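Can anyone check this?
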Amino acid sequence: MNIPLLEVNDLTVRFYLNESTVHAVNGVSFTVDDGQVVGIVGESGCGKSVTSLALMRLIQTPGRIDGGQVLLKNPTNRIDLLQLTEKQIEHVRGNRISMIFQDPMTSLNPVLTIGYQLMEPLKLHRGLDTSEAREEAIRLLTKVGIPEPEGRLKEYAHQYSGGMRQRVMIAMAAACSPDLLIADEPSTSLDVTIQAQILDLLLELKRDLGTAIIIITHDLGVIAEMAEKVVVMYAGTVVESGPVHAIFNTPFHPYTKALMTSIPSLRNTPERLTTIEGAPPVVLRELTSCPFAPRCPDRIPRCAEERPPLTELMLSHHCACWVASASSGGHYA
């Protein structure tokens, strides 16, 4: 039996505010295999970034991980990252699992040189001395396309362009040859040419090191180009997941279908863009019905009465929708 590199089971995250509780992640489950690229998509506010931060145990007060498992494969067993002490998880972060954060300008420390920040994980996780770490930092910057890396090690984040800061983040993420890289909106705010270069660097990392990648984005074009498997999120839940060709060619969930039809066409003829009416909900209580029901054109009375479970409708293709399950005769996952 093939054991996945990462298995997320029923992950739950809450934010406890003074007057309310935000149910940000509500029972999210998915897997990532060795060397696989998994795309997580959905509108802003659907829980994508919070899920990724929870995987790294980076949820800060007033947030709290309230349940679930995050199982990481070891050579002889699996460890639950949610059960590790802070000291133990420090040996996982940046070593076995690395992350490229959404905004490299705020993720890089503005008062420390790029060289210092790049050399730190090399010393901590690989045990290199200062001289060895400096040589490796130069090699990494060269690999990600930073010109004159020796001199640029002494510079600070504000002296780098947006694209170069993202390259530095990729170099830091690759420093310890991680088993898994989480890339949260890695091409946001970059022009199209730089976006393509950044995505090519990520695929090169996968090819050279065998690193699995979770790429979080709302750009379906990026997902189509890079991912092998897609997880579609809405209101902190997984509403559909499956192979990329299945999600794009035969989506089951009405939300996934709406996302696909909202992609602009490249045809020259003028056309009105398809939109999804309404807005994603801020979930302030336990979900007891389908969260997409108020916006769904296919809803039935049961959608407002009971939350649909994730159901396998085709091989490895899951969907949480009463209408889709009834029409396809799927079985519960």
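Reply from J.R.: I decoded it. Residues 192-209 form the longest helix (18 residues).
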